[in-house]
Every structure is written in C-alpha cells, then in structure tokens.
Amino acid sequence: MKKITAGIVAATAAMALSLTACSTPAAEPEPGAGELTTIRVANLPVAATMILNVADEQGFLEAHGIDVEITESGELATFIPALGSQYDIVMTTPTDFLSASTKGFDLVATAGGWADGAGVYSKVASSIEELAGKKIATNSLAGLQYGMLLDSLDQANVEGYELVQIPFAAQPDQLIAGQVDAATVPEPFASALEAEGYTRLFTPIEVATGEAGALTGWYSTSRVFADANAEALKGWNDAFADAVDWIEANPEEYRAFIQEKLGLDADVAASITLPTYKKKVTAQILSTYLAPLVRQGQLDATVEDLDLAQYVL
Questions:
Q1: 63, 288 Cβ separation under 8 angstroms
Q2: 207 Cβ partners below 8 Å, 6+ apart?
Q3: DSSP class of 179
Q4: Beta strands in 196-293 (DSSP E)
C-alpha cells in the first residue's frame, strides 16, 4: 500500500498537449521475484473511482507486483497531458480519452471501467421537455456530463434553457435554495436529493448513447508506457479484476469503504446507488460514445471510421 497525496497538477500542464507528454515511461523495471513496479496514478476522488483504493488497500495491486502512488485531484483536464512526466496511469472519461486519442495522444485503456451516470433532478419539472426555459446546473461547461446533457436536450428539442456551472458538491444546496431549477448530479449527491423529494427526470448518458449503464470512466496510459511495462500492466489489470470480484462479493463492505474514504454521512452512504464495474474496456464500449460526441462537435465525424480496437489494452 502506498501513500495517497492530494494535489493539483500545474495549470501549464493542461496547455502541454503534445506527443512528448506521453513519451517517457517512468516506471521502474518490470518486477522479478519479490520486486515491485512503482506506478504513479492520478485519480479523481469520487465514489466510482474508489475501486483503485480497494485494489490498493485490499492488497491486490501488491499481490500482482505493483507499488502504487496515488495522487488525488479534481483537475481531470490536466491528467492526460501529465502522462509520462507526473503520472503513468490516469483516470479518464470517454470524452477526454477519445478526444485526446484522436488528436495525437497515443492512449490505451487499461483496467475495467465503471458506470455511475449522473441524473438530472428537479421539483419544478417532471420531464425533460419541461426543462425549456429553465436554469440547469452542470459541473462543467466541457467534458462528458456536459456533452451528454447537451445532446439529450437537443434530442428532446428543448430550447431556451440556461446552463449554470456549479460543482457537484454545491449543486444540491443551490437547487434546494431555488438558484437553479434542475441539477445534473452523480452519487453520493443524487441520493440526498431523492431524500428531499426531488425527481430524477433522466440520465443524460443513457439518453445520448441509447445505452443503459454505459461506462463513464476507466484508467488509461500511454502506449509507450504500456509497451515498456507489459508485465506490470498485466498485473495492474489482474489486480482490478480481483477488485471487481471483491466489490461484487462484498457490496456493504464497499459501501462502508466509500463512506470512510469520502467522508460521507452514514444516512447518505446507506442510500447511494453503488457503481457497477466491468473488468475490461472494449472497442464496442468506446463506440457507444462516438455518435453523441460527433453530434456535439467534440469529435470529428471521421472518427466513426476508426478501428477502436487499437485503443484498448
């Protein structure tokens, strides 16, 4: 088990979208008998990504030859540019992964992903169509949740709405205070709103992709690092497979684990919907997001002709 540090990557890293960012494998030599490979990981600390902490603290990573160093940060946009310099593996969403992969970063998806799509909650609207002319909170004006929300509203021909950027943690208070009419929130905040009588109108990712339970994130690395550390990456993937098995066999222990790690109130932790996990990211999973991202201009239409198998490990 290795240290977990809280930190934010320098803002300049976000501007450094160049191939050199992924060019230098930084891991130690592949492990031999009794030797561990150190892997530096950037993680967004939310309920779904606690699978990384499970893999670490249950000893699965160490058992498969990995000594992990975890940096927790909310600056997701800086993760991919820092591959090869500050990190070896980073948490990614479908949007940033596909966007970076098709713009010069040679990325590959590693261990399995999770599904924990945010829902749109409201008391003043009872359907997606009734969001016309309303103020809707969104965590960011870019990225996965934003793109899927826009696409969902477009598909329903909703007009005249206003998107207001509010961090996930602050959205429930702003919604209850009447500062916005609806909010797009994931767990653990979603269950708290349901307890206050708010209705989940729809899940943007499901509307946009047409798929229930579409993956919302996974861990990725550069192909350079993957090629140079093949044995270590196999150990990483095997450790995450073990972590998925443990979570599925111990859901209440995992709930308590999330509560402790995120500092949740016991009642909130008891009511959250646990994320679901897959052990492997596939080309089919990646393809789920192409159409909505192309419709929203986040990807060029030519990506629909790509062989997505090249992006999975």
A1: no
A2: 128, 148, 151, 152, 155, 156
A3: S
A4: 199-202, 218-222, 276-277
Question: Strand 162-165 relative to strand 119-122: parallel, antiparallel, unpaired?
Answer: unpaired
Q: Describe the crossing of helices 251-262 and 50-57 by its angle, rounded to 10 degrees.
A: 110
- What's the angle, vertex CA 41, arms to CA 209 and CA 3, rounded to 5? 135
Residue 45: closest CA among 263, 271, 277: 263
Phi, psi for residue 72 in degrees, rounded to 5? -95, 130
Which residue segments constitute the domains of the chain, with CATH numbers given?
4-115+214-311 (3.40.190.10), 119-209 (3.40.190.10)
> How far is the C-alpha of 298 from the C-alpha of 143, rounded, in Å?
9
For β-strands 182-185 and 66-72, DSSP reports them as unpaired
Of 218, 280, 205, 215, which Cα lies nearest the Cα of 92? 218
Render each residue's pLDDT in the chain as its tens digit; 313 residues: 433 333 333 333 333 333 333 443 444 444 444 689 999 999 988 889 999 999 999 999 999 999 999 999 988 889 999 999 999 999 999 989 998 988 888 999 999 899 988 899 999 999 999 999 999 999 888 888 899 999 999 999 999 999 999 988 889 899 999 999 999 988 878 888 888 899 999 999 999 999 888 899 999 999 999 999 999 999 999 999 999 999 999 999 999 999 999 888 888 888 888 999 999 999 988 899 999 988 988 888 888 777 888 888 8
Residue that the structure tokens 């990456």 belong to? 233
- The 8 Å CB, 24+ separation contacts for 185-189 are 185/118, 185/119, 185/121, 185/137, 186/46, 186/47, 186/116, 186/117, 186/118, 186/119, 186/145, 187/47, 187/116, 187/272, 187/273, 187/275, 188/47, 188/258, 188/262, 188/264, 188/268, 188/269, 188/272
**CB atoms inside a 10 Å sphere around CB 300:** 12
* Separation of CA 82 from chain center: 17
Residues in the chain: 313
